[in-house]
């Protein structure tokens, strides 16, 4: 009974372990989830691309989200960022088909996508969560929030 109550408490609370990191080995082209056309979408007239990455291992966290977006560098390249859970591993799953986007002029682009995470160090099964993040194209700031529970 105590374990069930503890699990419910974890599911009801937001988790703060998601990170935004500069592109590294996770963002390699060979990690783009196949088929590419189903796991990559563009927004803001093509200036923003969100893609699902699958690095294979670890099995409990092999999925990441790639974000290519303004601001642009000196050579015209977009910034490259990866959303992780936590920085050392990824998500247990990402339901990329259900990625939703909206725009608020005061915030920027806002994204929501269902994910699965191992929320506790001794968890046996991943739990559903909703990854929400905003992107300010003027500054490049990405602000993620993870809400546990589907």
UniProtKB/TrEMBL annotation:
Keywords per UniProt: Signal
User: Which residue positions does the secretion signal occupy?
Assistant: 1-17
Query: What protein name applies here?
Result: Pyridoxal phosphate biosynthetic protein
The record lists the lineage as: Bacteria, Pseudomonadati, Pseudomonadota, Alphaproteobacteria, Rhodobacterales
């Amino acid at each position: 009974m105590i374990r069930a109550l503890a699990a419910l408490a974890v599911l009801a609370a937001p988790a703060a372990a998601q990170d935004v990191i500069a592109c590294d080995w996770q963002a390699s082209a060979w990690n783009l989830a196949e088929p590419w056309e189903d796991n990559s979408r563009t927004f803001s007239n093509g200036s923003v691309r969100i893609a699902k990455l699958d690095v294979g291992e670890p099995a409990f966290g092999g999925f990441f989200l790639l974000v290519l977006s303004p601001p642009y560098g000196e050579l015209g390249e977009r910034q490259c960022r990866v959303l992780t859970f936590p920085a050392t591993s990824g998500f247990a799953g990402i339901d990329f088909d259900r990625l939703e986007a909206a725009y608020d002029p005061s915030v920027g682009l806002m994204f929501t996508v269902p994910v699965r995470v191992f929320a506790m160090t001794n968890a046996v099964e991943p739990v559903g969560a909703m990854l929400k993040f905003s992107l300010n194209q003027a500054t490049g700031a990405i602000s993620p929030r993870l809400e546990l529970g589907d």
